[in-house]
């Protein structure tokens, strides 16, 4: 059994999804304990062996970088409307009055459920952005469903859920 660190100052926990969904009982139990610890102590973890192809991940990164490299005027075509939360925009992440402002460029979209999508905010440049985001978001959804199935059978799900 891999030892689970109890020191919250260690590195972000790494969870192996393949051990949670298709492994021996011992590996499954050990990884589930690591997941429980990660949710309770960190509320975040890195997921490995999740099954998302490198091609899907790379294409999403490329499309996102290309979008954010567009001129501001072009990105502003996707600016927030008073009636929608989806949008492209900028924000300052203010922590204190003395800090230098750190502006962030963001794009906030709802890929799921499909009925909640407002394609007016889904970029058409780069031309592959919409299809790439759809592919990527389906993969992320599949992972989320797998994690819920792993956690759901017992009270562990209810216990972990209160931390996230």
Query: N- to C-terminal separation?
Result: 26 Å
Could you list the spans in which at least 5 consecutive residues all have pLDDT below 50? none
Number of helices: 6
Multimerization status: single chain
Give the class from helix and strand content and strand pairing. alpha+beta
Q: How many separate domains? A: 2
Series of H and E elements: EHHEHHEEHH
Percent of residues in β-strands: 5-15%
> What overall form do the CA principal axes indicate?
globular
Largest sheet: 2 strands, parallel
Q: Can you give the helix content as a percent range?
A: 40-55%
Organism: Ziziphus jujuba var. spinosa
Keywords: Iron, Metal-binding, Vitamin C
GO molecular function: L-ascorbic acid binding; metal ion binding
Protein name: Non-haem dioxygenase N-terminal domain-containing protein
Task: Summarize the SSE layout with pairings.
Blueprint: E1 14-16, H1 17-21, H2 25-42, E2 46-48, H3 54-68, H4 72-75, E3 87-92, E4 103-108, H5 129-151, H6 155-161
Parallel strand pairs: 1-2
Antiparallel strand pairs: 3-4
Helix pairs in contact: 3-5
């Amino acid at each position: 059994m891999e030892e689970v660190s109890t020191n919250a100052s260690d590195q972000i926990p790494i969870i192996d999804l393949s051990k949670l969904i298709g492994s021996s009982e011992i590996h499954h139990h050990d990884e589930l304990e690591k997941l429980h610890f990660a949710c309770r102590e960190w509320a975040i973890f890195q997921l490995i062996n999740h099954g998302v192809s490198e091609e899907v991940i790379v294409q999403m990164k490329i499309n996102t970088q290309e979008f954010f490299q567009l001129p501001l005027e072009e990105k502003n075509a996707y600016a927030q409307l008073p009636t929608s939360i989806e949008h492209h925009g900028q924000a300052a992440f203010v922590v204190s009055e003395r800090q230098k402002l750190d502006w962030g460029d963001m794009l906030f979209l709802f890929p799921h459920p499909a009925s909640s999508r407002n394609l007016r905010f889904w970029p058409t440049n780069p031309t592959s952005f919409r299809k790439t985001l759809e592919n990527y978001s389906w993969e992320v959804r599949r992972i989320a469903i797998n994690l819920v199935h792993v956690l759901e059978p017992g009270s562990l799900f209810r216990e972990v859920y209160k931390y996230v």
